[in-house]
Amino acid sequence: MELATIDSIITKNSINYDDIMNNFILWIEKGKYTPTSHAFGVGRCCLKAIYNYKKGIPVLECGNKEKEHMSNG
């Protein structure tokens, strides 16, 4: 995820949340940014947030909002 974020910042020359999330989707689904072309190390909360974004939920609203949740991907 860090590589996907850095790639977006360099490419866009700014912080573009939608571009970062699109890079996360490429990481999960295509294995971009991995040495083996397979994503690894993604947690359930992050994965849910990424797929929420893919379903059309706005980037700043796709993570878990429950205060009780310690992992807000």
What is the overall shape?
Answer: globular
Structural class: mainly alpha
Compute the number of structural domains: 1
Helical fraction equals 40-55%
| Percentage of residues in strands | under 5%
SSE run: HHH
Q: Tally the helices: what do you get?
A: 3
Largest sheet: none
Instruction: Supply Rg.
Output: 12 Å
Distance between the termini: 12 Å
Average pLDDT score = 91
Which residues form runs of ≥5 with pLDDT under 50? none
Number of strands: 0
Could you explain the architecture of this structure?
The chain is mostly helical and about 70 residues long. It has one domain. Helix content is about 50%, strand content about 0%. It contains 3 helices and no strands. Helix 1 crosses helix 2 and helix 2 crosses helix 3. The protein is globular. The N and C termini lie close together (about 10 Å). The model has no long low-confidence stretch (mean pLDDT about 90).
Supply the key terms.
73 residues; mainly alpha; globular
Strand and helix layout:
Blueprint (H helix, E strand, L loop, with lengths): L1 H11 L4 H14 L13 H11 L19
Helix pairs in contact: 1-2, 2-3
Short description:
Helices cover 49% and strands 0% of the residues. It has 73 residues and is an all-alpha fold. It has one domain (2-61).
